[in-house]
Amino acid sequence: MALTAGIVGLPNVGKSTLFNAITKAGAEMANYPFATIDPNVGMVEVPDKRLDRIQEIIPAKKVVPTTFEFTDIAGIVKGASKGEGLGNKFLENIRRVDAIVHVVRAFDDDNITSVTGTVDPLDDIDTINLELGLADLDSVNKRLVKVERDAKSRDKDILAELAVLQKIKPVLENGDSVRSIEFDEDEQRIVKGLFLLTAKPVLYVANIAEDDMAAPEESKYVKQIEDYAKKEGAKTIGVSAKTEEEIAELDDADKADFLEAEGVAESGLDRLIRASYHLLGLGTFFTAGGKETRAWTFKRGIKAPQAAGIIHSDFERGFIRAETFSFSDLDELGSMAAVREAGKLRLEGKDYVVQDGDIIEFRFNV
Ligand SMILES: Nc1ncnc2c1ncn2[C@@H]1O[C@H](COP(=O)(O)OP(=O)(O)OP(=O)(O)O)[C@@H](O)[C@H]1O
Ligand SMILES: [Mg+2]
């Protein structure tokens, strides 16, 4: 099942604009709140310089980057957890995503409607996080009623869940997120089954003005968001969604020219895509040479046969072994022959945990 990053925030802050910049999907963007009702789903290519380097050393006919999914969700407003602005439906859409990309307005522009009437990133973040937290508190309380009743059976799993719920409840009542709590492995498994919104990993996108693109870190709004995010251990990335959307259709050379003219060293968009990929716990392995060199997305922690199954179910069914070397060895040694000579080509079996940057040839038999 594909993991998806959900784009979440107040109405009219630029979520769909960011989504279009990322996916080139052409979702509706408009200068009024609730332009988005049903979620937009789109795929994004993961920018990865390692592919260029592999192609340089082991030339293939074609190079194929890997992709992953983003979901653009309707704006959340104050009271959403109590059903305001179609709140419940929109919160359910957030429940289905695996990580949250929280877009915060960080640009001044009198022509763009603000649902709060001001530009105040911290207040905006609080509004969203409060609604997500209240929705979680509601879920926890409902679950507690049932689990407290069942706990009379002294069933060990039920008692474990009860303890987790009792650990979570006061944190939510205090206005904090579930992700701020430390859980051991068993507890984590229980938390996962509760599908709580504030347990999802998050990163913040400061949607900045075009004028701030050259030095996002100097924007007062970005600074405010960064300070807040740091306390949660979360990352902040400054992106001008509108400008990125406008240049999304340009080819790479024209885009580079534009960014250079603006004095922008690196597009925030690429950093955002990579950070979201990371947030979802995704990694990349490669297949190289011959017809195509290709990057593949995998969920970190999977073993070699499952990774083979991402390419083709036959590869998983008939898995024999994974002939593996790492990108960093190839990069350093400069040729396939040198990798072999240095003993860096490994024969890995069915218990091998695939690593980001592995270059793999699967042997299988069906
Ligand atoms: N960085 C920016 N600077 C100025 N205007 C922007 C910026 N980013 C987005 N906008 C403008 O903000 C308006 C709202 O954008 P968009 O429709 O993407 O918001 P949204 O968050 O998806 O809204 P909704 O919640 O209604 O779906 C659009 O007019 C868009 O051009
Ligand atoms: Mg929208």
Automatic annotation (TrEMBL):
Top-level taxonomic group: Bacteria
GO CC term, one of those recorded: cytoplasm
Cofactor: Mg(2+)
Any one GO molecular-function label of the UniProt entry: ribosomal large subunit binding
Residues annotated as signal peptide: none
Residues noted as binding ATP in the record, renumbered to the chain: N12, V13, G14, K15, S16, T17
Gene3D superfamilies for this protein: 3.10.20.30, P-loop containing nucleotide triphosphate hydrolases (3.40.50.300), TGS-like domain (1.10.150.300)
Record key words, sorted: ATP-binding, Magnesium, Metal-binding, Nucleotide-binding
Function noted in UniProt: ATPase that binds to both the 70S ribosome and the 50S ribosomal subunit in a nucleotide-independent manner.
Family: Belongs to the TRAFAC class OBG-HflX-like GTPase superfamily. OBG GTPase family. YchF/OLA1 subfamily.
Protein name: Ribosome-binding ATPase YchF
Gene, per the UniProt record: ychF
